[in-house]
């Protein structure tokens, strides 16, 4: 696997991959995948499995959805900033839920502003 310390400016502009996303054990456990990657844009997928179910039938744990959104935000930064050996870290996140995910797969699309 590609270690974060090996991700340097020479990687800038390359596509962000599922392998890189899953360097995080949390992202691996959630089975997050990259379905679209270009500088400033990321599309991710996450299967709605028993591991991420909420307390009530047919719901997904809100923390899992927030983690999914957070990963999409980080992935969209790939290729537009030169972090060198650094990596992105979320310092603040606010999520409002309008409804629960209800299909077998969930997807996220993020654009850098």
TrEMBL record:
User: Which intervals hold domain Thioesterase?
Assistant: 58-98
Per the UniProt record, the lineage of the source organism begins with: Bacteria, Bacillati, Actinomycetota, Actinomycetes, Mycobacteriales
Taxonomic superkingdom:
Bacteria
Source organism of the structure: Mycobacterium ostraviense
What is the protein's name according to its record? Thioesterase domain-containing protein
**Matching InterPro entries:** HotDog_dom_sf (IPR029069), Thioestr_dom (IPR006683)
């Amino acid at each position: 696997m590609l270690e974060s310390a090996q991700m340097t400016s020479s990687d800038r502009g390359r596509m962000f991959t599922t392998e890189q996303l899953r360097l995080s054990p949390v992202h691996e456990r959630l089975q997050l995948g990259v379905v679209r990657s270009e500088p400033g844009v990321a599309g991710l997928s996450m299967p709605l499995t028993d591991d991420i179910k909420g307390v009530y039938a047919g719901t997904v744990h809100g923390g899992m959805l927030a983690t999914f959104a957070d990963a999409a935000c980080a992935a969209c930064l790939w290729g537009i900033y030169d972090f060198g050996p650094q990596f992105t870290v979320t310092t603040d996140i606010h999520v409002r839920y309008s409804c629960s995910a209800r299909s077998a797969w969930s997807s996220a699309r993020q654009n850098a502003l």
